[in-house]
């Protein structure tokens, strides 16, 4: 597959808490990617052993905000999220040496 499977990691307070407790990391992935492709992509990019992959499609949401010209309405697109659980002793460091 020529296009990229892993789009970006999800770095939120909830995702950080899950990674500390369950050794699981969250990624935004391509909508057409399956669990096997996601597992190979994470193992190849981060050199870790993946134990399991759970996927879910987050639904689109409508958003509104107020501005000087009135209320602006829009939509946030749907995306596919993958929660990747790593093997014992494995770790992914997104921030490097900050």
Q: What spatial order of strands do you see in the largest sheet?
A: 1-2-6-3
End-to-end gap: 33 Å
Query: Which residues form runs of ≥5 with pLDDT under 50?
Result: none
Number of domains: 1
Summarize the structure.
The protein is α+β, with helices and mostly antiparallel strands.
Characteristics:
alpha+beta; 4-stranded antiparallel β-sheet; 98 residues; Alpha-Beta Plaits; single chain
Question: How is the secondary structure organized here?
Answer:
Blueprint: E1 6-9, H1 13-22, E2 24-29, H2 35-46, E3 50-58, E4 61-67, E5 70-76, E6 79-86
Antiparallel strand pairs: 1-2, 2-6, 3-6, 4-5
Q: Can you describe what's shown?
A:
It is a single chain. With 98 residues, the protein is an alpha+beta fold. It has one domain: RRM (RNA recognition motif) domain (Alpha-Beta Plaits). Helices cover 22% and strands 42% of the residues. It contains 2 helices and 6 strands; from the N terminus they run E-H-E-H-E-E-E-E. It has a 4-stranded antiparallel sheet. Strands 4-5 form a two-stranded antiparallel ribbon. It is elongated, with a radius of gyration of 16 Å. The chain starts with 5 loop residues before the first strand and ends in a 12-residue tail after the last strand.
């Amino acid at each position: 597959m020529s296009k990229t499977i892993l789009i970006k990691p999800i770095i939120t307070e909830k995702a950080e808490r899950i990674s500390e407790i369950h050794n699981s990391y969250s990624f935004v992935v391509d909508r057409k990617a399956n669990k096997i492709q996601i597992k190979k992509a994470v193992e190849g990019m981060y050199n870790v052993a993946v134990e399991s992959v759970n996927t879910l499609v987050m639904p689109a949401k409508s958003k509104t905000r107020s501005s000087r010209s009135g209320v602006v309405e829009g939509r946030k697109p749907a995306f596919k999220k993958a929660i990747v659980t790593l093997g014992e002793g494995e770790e992914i460091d997104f921030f490097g040496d900050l």
